[in-house]
Structure formats: C-alpha cells, structure tokens
Amino acid sequence: MTSNPVKDRAPHVLVVRDLTVSYRTAAGPVRAVNGVSFALRPGERLGLVGESGSGKTTTALSLMRLLQESAVIEGGQVLLDGVDLLGLSREEMRQARFAQISLIPQGAMNSLNPMMKIGEQLRDTILAHSAGSVSKTDIYARIQKALESVELRGSVANSFPHELSGGMKQRVCIAMGILLNPKVIIADEPTSALDVVVQRQVMETLRRVQESLGAAVILVGHDMGLMAQFADRIGVMYGGKLSELSPVRGIFRDPLHPYTQLLIKSLPNLEMKENFRGIPGLTPSLLKPPPGCMFHPRCPQAMARCSTDIPTLVEMKPDQWVSCLLYDKGQS
Amino acid sequence: MTTLLEAQNVSRVFGTSLLNKSGTIAVDGVSLVIKEDKPTITAIAGESGSGKTTLARLLLGMIRPSSGEILYRGRSLLGMDRQSRDEFRRQVQAIFQDPYESYNPVYKVDQVLTLPLRKFRLAKSKEEGYAQVEASLRMAGLRPEETLGRYPHQLSGGQRQRIMVARALLLNPRIILADEPVSMVDASLRATILESLVKLKRELGISLVYITHDLTTAYQVSQSIYILYRGSVAEVGSVEKVIKQPKHPYTRLLVSSIPLPDPDVRWGGDRELEVKSSEANTRVTEAQGCKFANRCPFVMPECHHAAPPLYRTDDDRAVACYLYKDSPIVSGAEIATSLAS
Fold first, then answer.
1. Could you give the CA distance from residue B182 to residue B262 in angstroms, rounded to a whole number?
2. Which residues lie below 8 Å from residue B200, measured CB to CB, with a gap of 6+?
3. Higher confidence at residue B103 or residue A92?
4. ipTM over 0.85
5. What mean pLDDT is reported for chain B?
6. Is the pLDDT of residue A181 over 80?
7. DSSP state of B265
C-alpha cells in the first residue's frame, strides 16, 4: 500500500484503512463507501464533506457500527488505539460506544427519548457503561458536570426534551457524547437544524469541550462555511471515495482536485454579487458508477485515460492528498 | 409606477382561544411593496420563529391577516371576485423548500407540469401544452428528454426543485415567492438554481420574493432585504447597506454569525454582541417594548417601554432601534415604497 494517507510513524488515535461498505437494494448492491482510508491525530478536528450520496454519513456511521440492516461492511479496518472496531463482538462494540467513540447525531430532536427526563437519559448512558455499581451522588455529580460543560443549567436534568429549545437539545446530545470521555467524537451535521446564531454558539461549545477533553472530532456535513470555521483538516468525498484530504487552508486556498476546485468556486460569498458558478452535471449513480474516475463525466479537465483508469489517493504536497490522474505522472 | 403586490401593515396572530386571549403574534405590522414595472428580488430573512414563512403564506393568500391587508393590483385579496382571484392565483406563484413534498410519488413528474396547464386552460392542444412544458423546462435549465416521463424519486433534489421553477414559469407569472428554495439542495447545485432564479428576473421580468435564513445567498440574489425578528421588521433596506454595514444589533449578530467559507475570516468577530445572546432567554418576549431588548447588549431603559418605530438612517435603509432615534421616523409603507421604486 504505497498510496495511503495513513502514516505509521505518527501517533494516531483512529486509523481507517480501505473501508468498503455496500447497501443491498432491490436493484442490486450499491457501494456507498469504496476504499476510504484516513487517520486522526488526538485532538484533531477532521471535516468530512460531500454532497448527498457521497458516502460521508455511511463512513461516519460505519466507524460506530451503527449502519442500517441493509448495509454490509465488506472490508477494511477501523483501528481505535490499535484495536479493530470491526472485529469486536456486539457486546464489546456496545461498550466501546460512548466510552471510546461517540456520536452526536443529526437532528437532536429525534434522538432524545421524548418520554424520559434528560437526567434519566444521561444516567442510563453512565449505567450502561459501568462494570461495578456507581453511587447515586457520583452519577448526579457527573451529570451536573456534563451539563455545565455544555453551558446548560443543572436544572435541565429535570426537563423533558420538549421543554427545551433546539439549541439546548443539541447541547444535551453533546453532553451525552462526552459523558464518558471518548477519544473520538463523530458529529453528523450537528447544527443543520439550528439557526445561525445558535449554530455558532453550539459549535463553539463543541469545540471547547473537545479541546478540554483532548478528543478528536470528525465533523460530517456539507456546509463549507462551517467546515472552514471548525476543521483543521478536510476530507472531500465524492461517489464513495475520498477525492482529496488536506489541511483546511489547503482546501480553501490551494485545492488540488478539480471537484474541490469547482466546489470552492461555487460557494457564495459577500464579496461578489450574482456570482453563480455551479458544478455542471449530476452526482454519479452508485448503482451504475462510471468506469474510471467517478468525477470524470463532470470534470472540465478530464483526459482520455480518466474514463478507464481509477485514480488512487497520493500525497502531492506535505499532508495534501489527492486522488486524481492529473497528478499521476509516469505510471499508467 | 403601479403597485403589483402590497402588504399594508399586516399582522397575523395564531392560537387565540378563550383561555389564551393574546395568542402568538407571528407577523406583527409588516409592510412590503412590489412594483409592476421594475422587476426586483426582495429578500425576507430571519431565523425560525421570525414569521417569514407566515408572511409568505399571507402574501400568497393561503391564510388571512388578523389585521392589515394584502393587495394585488390594488385589490384586497379578501373579497376578490372569482376572475381576479384566478388571475392572482396564476400570476403569483410559489416555490417551496422541500421539492419532494410538492410531488405525488406515484405520478410521473409530467403531472405537476400538465396539471396547471389544464387548470388554467393555457394550452389549446396537447401538442401546444407539451411545447410549453418543454420551453419552461429549458428556461429552468433542464433538458426535457432527461426529465419528462420520470418519477420524482428518479430525479435529483436539484432537478426536482428546477421542475418546480419550470412549473411556476408555465403560468407566465408576474411574481414568484420562493420559500427557502435551496436550503435542501447540495452546494454544487445551489448556485445553478439561484442563477436560474436571477435569470427569471433579468430575462422574463419576473419579480421574486426570496424567503431565507441564509444572508449570504440573500446578498447574492436580491436588491432589498427585510430582516424579521419575532414577526417585526428589525431592519430593512438595500442589501449593500443591511448586510455589508448592518446597524440593528440583531442584524449585526446575524451577520457576524455567518460561517464564511474562509478559514482566515474569524467567525463571530463582532464580540461586542456576545453579552446577552445566550439562548436561555431567546424564548422570552417582552410584553411591550423592543422584542430584542432582552438579548441586546446595548439595551436602554426606553427599550422596555415601547416598541421602537423605524428610523430612516439612510435613503435606502430604516432600522427599528432607539440607537438611531436621531434619524427621522419613517412608516413601514413609506420605506417599502421607496425601496421598490
């Protein structure tokens, strides 16, 4: 494996190697994630962006092994501190969730139990992951501390979800995600249902608790503005593959992949009015993926070999990885 | 210049009952003007609960105002005769947020296009109808051969939304109300759809009311903008003034919260605004006085006593905030008319 952005020398908390996931559908299997590899350093914030159907959410949920029934993880490794999560038993994986790797889901309103008070839901999370008995005062203290860390009053523990605003519910989800001090937090579009002002405040909270825990975060989403403000590094997904993986300034200032270049140009800004540069064409059908590079039917720089050869992720500049034949000199 | 669509000091209250006499004021005394001869794009921006969708439904005649009036070509939507009502229904079209919900999943997409043709008897023959359908699809940036004969689920979100644009175009409207038309569409397609909306104004002379929570796209497409806060206009004016040099503390907070796609432009740079903007008290509304007072870092005693009127700080801007009380007071209708001209 020469072309793999996983460097063995760096101390990584999470290493994903050649992750491949398919969904069984009536029309045949659909490969939603196709050989994705990346690694996370402790405390790092990685953004995973892509359009709908690019495989970003499937990738994130695979790490938690929380995919729907029709999904099959066909291959790859998810190494958390050297332990392959894909090889764990169901019970071992259940224990690892929240304690080692946690998920802050999209749309907090739907992930909290409407019949249970917030405090009870947090308590259950603690109890489900403690081997021996935990004292009531200890649980109470941990819940209060978790709520405090996401800037909620302790009295929120006595509230039902419907009594809270959207932003407060999302903070509860963050509190739950960090309750057991995980090493990796996956946040799947955590603020997509929130207003801009609340969104900024919630993201600032997430950033602060993540920094104080020293946990790594994978932020999944499609809002490039949010990514620019939050992420250290960004992985751009297209058609189930990583097309580029670079530090945030590399993505915004010096994008390498033609798709990233068009994506950055298409973003509206406050500098120029009526500046519309969409990306022509449609996202590829995963049922009948195009041969060669997934992006070649839409790519303005496509060459003849793009429709036959499959590009691999290579490191073009220090820490800037791209999967594009334009950068593939020599070999064919 | 004659006025096409006008909201005159409209309010809408929900949920009044025997027990709850006051109810929730969703829209509170808003005036808005769209002129006939000069096509414009007017943005109505606000967060959830700002009343922007209620205002859209009022403008479309889907709900009645509790007070004030909506006029189309000078006639109130209430008590319009059948012929004027049909004319209004045809000339004022809407595009909604989730294009999937506008379709019947068991019918081919052709149905949403041919139905309005039949309803308004716009085509003399089937062939003529199809020619019109194809022309409007092309105008919306779609290839008819790739869209007709398909089911909604076989198309992408961007295609489905553009079919809604094509459908609105079929009726040769004067105004299109677009309620969050791109918020569910992927980034790469967003620009294309916004471009087709701007093209409608430029090439077909159709005015648009663009309802959104996204100030960046509002700045991109529109000339004037209304910033709503809890049903009231907080600031109104040209986008250049309101978005580039916001004056109302709420507008400043909104603009400063836009996550710009640039890692070197810091988010929430306007730290002066942070003082009271914790969300714990966003739900409380002052019984009287300025609705933003309890979140406002610049709050003064008078803010709690009476709601501020609009102060005309510039030719092309008015701000409902006592910080600008040295400027002349202007009525909502007056500033709306001057922005539309």
1. 21
2. B139, B165, B169, B176, B206, B208
3. A92
4. no
5. 88
6. yes
7. S
Residue B163 has φ and ψ, to the nearest 5°, of: -65, -35
Rounded to whole angstroms, the Cα distance separating A122 from B55 reads: 40
The total number of residues written for chain B in this structure: 341
Q: How confident is the model at residue B96 (pLDDT cuts 50, 70, 90)?
A: confident
pLDDT of A211 over the 80 cut = yes
Tokens of A256: 């390498």
pLDDT, residue B276, reads 47
Per the CB < 8 A criterion, the answer to whether B93 and B173 are in contact is yes
Q: Is A111's Cβ below 8 Å from some Cβ in B?
A: no
CA dist., res. A153 & res. A131, Å (int): 29
Interface of B with A (CB under 8 A): 47-48, 156-159, 186-195, 198, 213, 215-217, 219-221, 243-244, 253-254, 257-264, 267-268, 277-280, 282-283
- Measured CA to CA, the distance from residue A89 to residue A100 in angstroms comes to 15
| Interface contact A197, partner B, CB < 8 A | yes
Report whether A260 contacts A236 (CB < 8 A).
yes
For residue B179 the two structure tokens come to: 């309620």
Q: Kindly report the three-state secondary structure assignment for every residue of chain A.
A: CCCCCCCCCCCCCEEEEEEEEEEEECCEEEEEEEEEEEEECCCCEEEEECCCCCCHHHHHHHHHCCCCCCEEEEEEEEEECCEEHHHCCHHHHHHHHHHCEEEECCCHHHCCCCCCCHHHHHHHHHHHCCCCCCCHHHHHHHHHHHHHHCCCCHHHHHCCHHHCCHHHHHHHHHHHHHCCCCCEEEEECCCCCCCHHHHHHHHHHHHHHHHHHCCEEEEEECCHHHHHHHCCEEEEEECCEEEEEEEHHHHHHCCCCHHHHHHHHHCCCCCCCCCCCCCCCCCCCCCCCCCCCCCHHHCCCCCHHHHCCCCCCEEEECCEEECCHHHCCCCC
C-alpha neighbours within 13 Å on the C-beta side of residue B201:
21
Q: Which residue of B has its CA nearest to A269?
A: B216
A133, exposed or middle or buried, with CB in 10 Å at 0-12, 13-18, 19+? exposed
Residue A7: what pLDDT? 52
By Cβ distance, the residue of B188, B215, B217 closest to A278 is B188
C-alpha span between B30 and B10 (Å, rounded): 5
pLDDT, residue A286, reads 84
The C-alpha of A23 sits at a distance from chain B's nearest C-alpha, in angstroms, of 18
What backbone torsions phi and psi does residue B227 show, to the nearest 5 degrees?
Answer: -95, 115
Q: Are residues A52 and B157, on separate chains, in Cβ contact within 8 Å? A: yes
Contact B243 A270 (CB under 8 A): yes
- The predicted pLDDT at position B271 comes to 67
Report residue B292 as tokens. 């933003």
